[in-house]
UniProtKB/TrEMBL annotation:
GO terms for biological process: pyrimidine nucleotide metabolic process. Coiled coil: none annotated. This is CMP deaminase. The lineage of its organism: Bacteria, Bacillati, Bacillota, Bacilli, Bacillales. InterPro entries: APOBEC/CMP_deaminase_Zn-bd, CMP_dCMP_dom, Cytidine_deaminase-like, dCMP_deaminase, dCMP_deaminase-rel, Deoxycytidylate_deaminase_dom. The keyword Metal-binding applies. SUPFAM superfamilies: Cytidine deaminase-like. The active site is at E89 (proton donor).
Length: 170
């Protein structure tokens, strides 16, 4: 028998394909909306249509301060983040219909940030599957999904298709 891809792998592969369209040099995120086994939409992070994107205008960076507790000591970590792009998950919500989303699954290459998770929690989606972790928002996003009864799971053993991961600055 031919080694056929399971559905999780199939849809996550498509999310990774979508992520290659991103022009942000800091983060390439792709996502797909699936109802049953039907693909209803794909999206990636990018500037609004008709507006110069990160490859043309450069990333629009803001500095954020994060508090992290390491060995009982609070550490202040400064991080830069690009705010030029609309996040992949938000674009997916902008380009799909509420009706289509009821009871659907979102596959996303990266664990959603807090804002995207909050929007997804109110979008009709009932399952979120991601691959790469995002430790910063993990706890609050997980408890939000639990409170909303949304299945939230990571594909641990998954390997993205060759050529879909590009160098990003972190
Ligand atoms: Zn950018
Ligand atoms: Zn986000």
């Amino acid at each position: 028998m031919r080694n056929r891809k399971d559905w999780d792998t199939y849809f996550m592969d498509i999310a990774y394909m979508a992520s290659t369209r991103s022009q942000c040099s800091r983060r390439h995120v792709g996502t797909v909306l699936v109802q049953g086994k039907k693909l209803l939409g794909t999206a990636y992070n990018g500037a609004p249509m008709g507006v110069p994107d990160c490859s043309e205008a450069g990333c629009m960076l803001v500095e954020e301060i994060e508090l992290k507790v390491v060995e009982d000591k609070e550490e202040v970590i400064r991080k830069q983040r690009c705010i030029r792009t609309i996040h992949a998950e938000q674009n997916l919500l902008l380009f799909t219909d509420r009706e289509d989303r009821e009871g659907s699954t979102v596959y996303v290459t990266d664990q959603p940030c807090w804002t995207c998770a909050n929007m997804l929690a109110n979008s009709g989606v009932t399952e979120i599957v991601f691959h790469r972790g995002y430790p910063k928002d993990h706890e609050k996003v997980s408890s939000l999904m639990l409170a909303r009864g949304i299945t939230f799971r990571r594909m641990e053993a998954y390997e993205p298709p060759a050529g879909t991961i590009s160098e990003v600055i972190n």
